[in-house]
Design brief:
The chain has 715 residues and is α+β, with helices and mostly antiparallel strands. Among the domains are: 419-547, Serine Threonine Protein Phosphatase 5, Tetratricopeptide repeat (Alpha Horseshoe), CATH 1.25.40; 569-711, Cyclophilin. It has a 9-stranded antiparallel sheet with strand order 3-9-1-2-8-6-7-5-4. A hairpin with a 3-residue loop joins strand 4 and strand 5. Helix 7 runs antiparallel to helix 8 (139-157) and helix 17 runs parallel beside helix 19 (329-338). The relative contact order is 0.09.
């Protein structure tokens, strides 16, 4: 399953301090077991009434993580009489995590009350942003957006020092809710002495693509002492396509001492579309030690110089390509854009035997080349277009069936919309790799809703339902495609999916079967759904060896839960030995016990040893944990999200997802603060600033040689 960092939102990075240490182990086990089963019932609601405020706080967090809309009323009831500020704070956080419009009135009331603590207000404003974003068409969203701005304006104008957390969470809430007048109020925080506030204000403006405060932002890029502020200022100017910032951005891209600023400025220059700066970006020497930055330059050159055949750029890109062994799609795409004719010819002309061997043994070159050729689908030169299409078809027939690149080649070929595409996609619905079948299904949903396509998808789902024991990608993609092409014909497969051992497949079936209009043609559908719920099919059920799969089941035993909740923050570390040096992750088991336990078990089984880093986005994240190396791999099971109040500052470690509760083995480290990720991904550790110097040097293709777990008191 492709694990991307899908944009989410919320908090700043603060480590908890033994937050739930005063809760009995057996009570914690009850709570994490309910979370693991996605079960919001009387167990948690009763714990909300405990005399121990730590238990009430932890139960509220669990309810928020599970996210059942019906639980909002239970949180509201306890809030009315709750005096403990930490519990009230957690209730705000939980209501925000549920994201139901039923929580809007509670949040609005809390924001209007005069005596709430700064932390309660901070989490209320955060919740307002989450609820408004999830219910954009609801009238309450406008009220929530207005309340967010009123709180920010109050903090900005009061004479005393503003509450930092209220401001920071408010700035990100504006990004989520997008209220009218939000840019103006966010811009008022650009002059604050706190660099983190300036940086987060710029992050919001960048993502809103603001064009209203360019003069102030140019000043920050030129003079601010904080690298993250300068980097975010460059992002704002790029999004605004501010021509007056051209020279400042060139200077930042070529001379700033911090790579995060250089990368952001290089990207911004691509948005300005001034080809004259390309000469200044091209380095005199290709040094793969700077690969991350060079890839950004390649991408920008491709956007600045389309169809120009710029010789200096082409020479740089081919030299880079040779040293990189044709393994980076950024280089291939740039070459295809700048010099499409020579790119196609160079690839066609008798590849060397060593290149052929490489194409058959390493998925990266054919994947990268396919993405480059796919760029030519929009070429106005029919000869170039036809040749690129021919090469892709040849790749599909010649690269080994086990090569991970097939889905990328298939996707690139589909861009040409050839007459034989439909048949090629149908053929790949039978591919042995579920990732390829998932790609084929995802592409078929853009094809005509013919009887042949619908029947092929129904058959493909039946086969995937039986044989896919390690990955659920094909099942999920096929259900989506089938439903899009023919809702009525999809019902039979969806009803079968309700009996899948995998919770995520059942969840998909529930979501699609609740579609308005189906009940008219299938009057018995509500009864079928009610029966499935009565059998707890809407929960994660205990693992059964009889199914032959571990997907979407509760794998933890009571012993596992006890071990997980017994660990304390500061007692367990993961030491990574990489090709670029050694760095350590300080794990936070109190905040994410099951996530940490899963990570520790994988590390102790040598799962991460020898795995290549498959994704690096400079000034964003380094991501690893996929033995396939293409972003689609995992351990053969999934774990639930344990979203918490830890935020994504620099060095935060989180679980990569392709949707809620889809984590497994892929994890990431943030290069710089990413507040828009907070509340959407589980934070389960942190890398200190000294070790981040190693993380910053890691590029795609580097290897994790070894991971060692160090636990205090254990040998």
């Amino acid at each position: 399953m492709k694990h991307f960092l899908i944009i989410a939102f919320a908090v700043l990075f603060v480590f908890s301090n033994n937050v739930f240490a005063q809760i009995p182990t057996n009570t914690l086990v009850q709570i994490v077991k309910a979370e693991d089963e996605r079960r919001s019932d009387s167990t948690l609601e009763n714990l909300l009434k405990s005399s121990n405020p730590k238990i009430r706080e932890r139960a509220a967090l669990a309810i928020g993580r599970i996210g059942a809309e019906a639980s909002v009323s239970a949180l509201e009831n306890i809030l009315a009489a709750e005096k403990d500020e930490k519990v009230r704070t957690m209730i705000m956080f939980a209501i925000g995590e549920i994201e139901s419009s039923k929580g809007a009135e509670i949040i609005l009331k809390t924001l209007q009350e005069p005596n709430n603590s700064p932390e309660v207000l901070a989490r209320a404003i955060e919740a307002a942003g989450k609820i408004a974003a999830a219910n954009a068409k609801d009238e309450k969203s406008k009220e929530l957006g207005k309340a967010i701005l009123e709180k920010l304006e109050f903090e900005n104008k009061k004479r005393s020092r503003p509450f930092e957390n209220v401001v920071l969470l408010g700035l990100t809430a504006v990004l989520r809710a997008r209220p009218d007048g939000g840019e103006k109020i966010v811009a008022e925080f650009l002059g604050y002495s706190d660099a983190r506030i300036r940086a987060d204000a710029l992050n919001t403006l960048a993502r809103l693509r603001s064009k209203s405060v360019n003069a102030k932002v140019r000043e920050l890029l030129a003079k601010d002492n904080d690298a993250v502020v300068r980097a975010n200022a460059a992002r704002v100017l790029g999004g605004a396509e501010d021509k007056e910032a051209l020279d400042l951005l060139v200077n930042a891209a070529t001379k700033d001492a911090d790579s995060r600023v250089r990368v952001s400025a290089i990207r911004a220059l691509a948005s300005l579309k001034d080809a004259s700066v390309s000469e200044k970006l091209i380095p005199n020497k290709v040094d793969l030690a700077n690969k991350n930055e060079l890839l950004e330059i390649a991408t920008t050159l491709g956007r600045l110089l389309p169809n120009t055949n710029n010789q200096k750029a082409v020479d740089f890109l081919y030299k880079f390509r040779e040293l990189d062994v044709a393994s980076s799609p950024e280089i291939e795409i740039a070459l295809a854009r700048i010099s499409p004719e020579s790119y196609v010819k160079k690839f066609v002309n008798s590849p060397k035997p060593s290149e052929i061997t490489l194409m058959k043994t390493n998925h990266r070159p054919p994947s990268a080349i396919a993405q480059g050729l796919g760029e030519l689908a929009n070429s106005k030169d029919e000869k170039i277009k036809a040749e690129a299409q021919r090469i892709l078809k040849q790749l599909l027939s010649e690269i080994p069936i086990h090569t991970n690149a097939i889905s990328d080649v298939l996707t690139a070929y589909a861009a040409f919309k050839s007459n034989d595409l439909n048949q090629i996609l149908l053929k790949n619905l039978n591919h042995p790799d579920p990732i390829v079948r998932a790609a084929a299904a995802g592409l078929l949903d853009n094809q005509p809703s013919s009887k042949e396509n619908v029947e092929a998808l129904k058959k493909a789902f039946s086969e995937a339902f039986i044989k896919d024991k390690h990955d659920n990608d094909a099942q999920l993609a096929i259900l989506d495609a089938l439903f899009k092409l023919d809702k009525k014909e999809a019902v039979g497969s969806l009803l079968i999916a309700l009996d899948a051992p995998d919770y995520l497949v059942r969840k998909k079936a529930f979501e699609l079967l609740k579609n308005e209009g189906l009940e008219k043609d299938f009057p018995g559908l509500p009864t079928s759904l009610a029966n499935a719920i009565a059998k707890k099919k809407n929960q994660v059920l205990p693992y059964s060896p009889a199914f032959g799969t571990k997907l979407g089941q509760v794998l933890n035993t009571n012993t596992d839960y006890i071990r997980a909740v017994s660990r304390k923050n500061g007692t367990v570390k993961a030491v990574f030995t990489t090709t670029k040096g050694i760095f350590t992750i300080d794990l936070t088991p109190e905040d994410a016990p099951l996530t940490v336990d899963n990570f520790v078990k994988l590390a102790k089984s040598n799962y991460f040893n020898g795995v290549s880093v498959h994704r690096v986005v400079p000034n964003f994240v380094m991501q690893d944990g996929d033995p396939r190396g293409d972003g689609n791999g995992g351990p053969g099971w999934s774990i639930r999200c344990e979203v918490n109040m830890l935020g994504y500052g620099r060095g935060a470690v989180g679980m990569a997802l392709s949707g809620k509760d889809t984590g497994g083995s892929q994890w990431f480290v943030t290069h710089s603060p990413q507040p828009h990720l907070d509340g959407g991904y589980t934070v389960f550790g942190n890398v200190n600033e000294n070790d981040m110097k190693v993380v910053d040097q890691i590029v795609r293709g580097d290897k994790i040689l070894k991971v060692s777990i160090v636990e205090k008191g254990k040998k």
